[in-house]
Amino acid sequence: MELFNKIRQTIEQSYPDLKGINIDFQPTPENQTGDFGFPCFVYAKVLKTSPVNIASKLASLSYPDIIEETKTAGPYLNFSLDRNVFATELVSEILSQKELFGSGGEGKGKRVLLEHTSINPNASPHIGRSRNGLIGDTLARLFRFEGYDVNVHYYVNDMGKQIGLLVMQAEDKKDLRFHEVLDLYVEANQRAKDDPDFEAKGFDLLMRMEHGDPEVTKAFGDMVNICLNGQLEVLGRLGLTYDTFDRESTFLHDARMDEAMEVFNKQGALFTDEHGRKVLDLQKLGYCSEEGRYIVLKRANGSTMYMYRDIAYTLEKIERGGDMNLIVLGEDHKMYFEQMETIIRSLGKTPPVAVHYSYILLKEGKMSTRQGNVVLLADFLDEAVQHARAKVEVQWPDMPEDERGEIARIIGIGAVRFAILSVRPNRNVIFDWETALSFTGDSGPYIQYSCTRIASILRKHGSEPETLKSPLTLTHDAEWGLVFRLAAVPQDISSSLKLKNPGILATTALDIARRFSVFYNECPVLSAENEKIRDSRIAICVAARQALMNLLGLLGINAPERM
RNA sequence: GCGCCAAUAGCUCAGUUGGAUAGAGCAACUGCCUUCUAAGCAGUAGGUCGCAGGUUCGAGUCCUGCUUGGCGCGCCA
To answer: Strands A76-81 and A149-156, how do they pair?
Structure first.
C-alpha cells in the first residue's frame, strides 16, 4: 500500500539507521485505539534503546494528512486514519480498477508453462485426483490475473501397463462406454495379480505398441480416447480447462534422449544390470540420498520406462521456454521429482518448479479403488448440485426450471471447489459428505450469498455508480471494518501466488463475506438515514462485490444473481 | 528400517516474513425474519496450539528429540 510506504519514508527521514528494516504493519486489537500499527522491537535492536522509547519518539513525527492521530501502547505505535478520506480513495480505486482490482500486474510480458492434472487415462477420477487440477487451475488463474501469459499443459499418459491391461480386459467388449471402464480396470488389475501370464502379455503388448504395431497402437489409442474424453468431461464440469495436450507416446523415440543417454554414459551413471536393464545411478549425477539412487530407464526387452519418456517430455517443456515452468504433483511424486531434478540438472538445464499437495482422505480412512471406498468426482458433483437444487426449489418455487438448474450448478460447483481449495496444499484434506455438502458458514455458497445480497440491493436501487461522485461518509464501524479489509486484498492475492497456496484466496474471500454480512445486518443501505450515507453504502457494496467477484474468479467460482 | 510432509476447540479448518488477549465454521445452548434474500446476524460455552527440551525481550510460528497420522523407498505411471 502506498500509505505504508509513506509512513516508512517519514520514519527513515528522521532515522536513517532504520532504512531497509521491514515493518510489520498489522491491524490494532479491539481494545486499543487506532486502525493499524506496528511493534518497535526490531527498531530497538538497531537503535540500542527500549522499544517503548522508540514508539513514543516515532509517535511525534509528522505523518501524511490521512493519519489523524498516532498513539503508543507500550512498545507498539498505532495510527488512526481519517476513515472518510481512506475509504474514498480506496473505493474509487476499486471502482476504476474493476476486474483488475487486486492485481499487481507483476507478470506483464512474462510467460508461464504450467502442467497439472495429467491423470492416467483409466477410470472416472475420484476426488483425490481433482485436487491436482483444482490447485493447478487456480494457480493458472492467479498467474493470468497478475498479467502472466499462461499456457496450461496436460500430459496424456497414453501408454503404459495399465492401458495394455485395460485393452486386454476389454477385448470382447463392443462399444465400450466410459462408465464401464472402472469395473474393467479393477478386474484387469486383479487378474494381473493372480495370473502372471496375463501381466506378461500386457508388457508384450506395450512393447509392440512401442515398436509401432498399427493394430496395438489403434487399440491403445481408442482406449485412451474413451478414457480421456470421459475424464475431461468430468473435469470440465469443475471448470478445469487446458491449452495444450501432450501425448506420452510422442516422446517414445526422441533424439534428445539419445543425447541424454550419451551424457549419462559419459558421466559413468548408466549401466546394464544383471537382468539386462538399463539403469541410471543418480549418485553419479549428484543425487545425495541412497534411497531412489537407482532408476531403471529401459526394460531388458528394450521397452522404455515412464521416467525415460518423462525426461524427454520435460526437456520439451524446457525448450518451449518461458519465465516459469511449473508442475503440480501429488506428494507421492516427491522423490520421483527430486530424481527428475537431478537428471535435468545433469543435462545442464533448469528443472521445472513442482507444487506438491497431500492426499484427500476419507473420514473412514484412505480411498482405495480396489476396496471400492472411493468418492468419484462425478458423484460428488452430482450430489452437490442436487443438494443445491433442493434449496433453490424452496427459495424460488416460481423460477423457470432451467434457470434454477443453472443456479444449482453454480452453487454446487462453487461448494466443491471451495471445500478442496480452502485447505493448504501440504495438508491432507479430510473429506466427509456432511461438511462437504454444508452450504452454511465457511463455504463457497456463503460467499456467493454475500454477492447475491449485494446484487439484490443494487437491483432494487436501480443503478450502480461507475465512479464516485462525492466523497464517502462513514458513520458505522461495520462500514469501516469492511472497507479496511478490502485494502489488504492485493497483498493477500500476491501472497497466495508467491506461496502457491490457493487457500489464502479462500480465507480472504470468507473474511470479506463475513464483514459484509455484519455490515448488511447493521447498516441499512436503501433506507439509510440520508442520501449521502445511502450513496456511500451503495459505493461500499459495489466495491465489496468487486473484490469478492475477483477473488471468486481466481478460485474458479461464479456467483449467481439470485440464490 | 530410512527419507519427506503434517499435528491448533468434540469435528473440519485459518493463523502469509517470530509480536498486542490464538481465530472461523460445524455440532450444543440463547436471542433476532410486517424492514435491502435467515444459505444470514448477535450472544454463551468450548484451547496445557501432540509430548519434552532449547533459542529469543517475545514461540502456534525457529532448532533438537519423541509420539501419532499421511506419502515414498530399482523392470507401476
So the answer is: unpaired
Angle between helix A196-210 and helix A214-237 axes, rounded to 10 deg: 100
Assess contact for A329 and A131: CB atoms under 8 A: no
Q: Which residue, among A119, A326, A328, has the nearest Cα to A232 in the 3D structure?
A: A119
Taking Cα atoms as reference points, which of A492, A499, A513 lies closest to residue A557?
A513
Measure, in angstroms, how far nucleotide B11 C1' is from residue A504 CA.
22
**C1' (B52) to CA (A424) span, angstroms:** 28
* CATH 3.30.1360.70 at A2-81, yes or no: yes
Which positions of strand B lie within 7 Å of protein CB atoms? 1-7, 11-17, 19-21, 24-27, 35-42, 57-58, 69-77
Per-residue pLDDT of chain A (563 residues), as tens digits, is 588 989 999 999 999 988 888 888 999 988 888 999 999 999 988 888 999 999 999 999 999 999 999 999 999 999 999 999 999 999 999 999 999 999 999 999 999 999 999 999 988 999 999 999 999 999 999 999 999 999 999 999 998 888 999 999 998 888 899 999 988 988 898 898 889 899 999 989 999 999 999 999 999 999 999 999 999 999 999 999 999 999 999 999 899 999 999 999 999 999 999 999 999 999 999 998 888 999 999 999 888 999 999 999 999 999 998 999 999 999 999 999 999 999 999 999 999 999 999 999 998 878 876 666 889 999 999 999 999 999 999 999 999 999 999 999 999 999 999 999 999 999 999 999 999 999 999 999 999 999 999 999 999 999 999 999 999 999 999 999 999 999 999 999 999 999 999 999 999 999 999 999 999 999 999 999 999 999 999 999 999 999 999 999 999 999 999 99
Q: Boundaries of CATH 3.30.1360.70 in chain A?
A: 2-81
A45 CB below 7 A from strand B atoms: yes
Which 211-240 residues of chain A approach strand B with CB closer than 7 Å? none
Domain covering A377-554 in this structure, CATH number: 1.10.730.10
Residue nearest to nucleotide B5 (CA to C1'): A426
| Cell representation of residue A225 | 480416447
Q: Give residue for cell 491432507.
A: A428
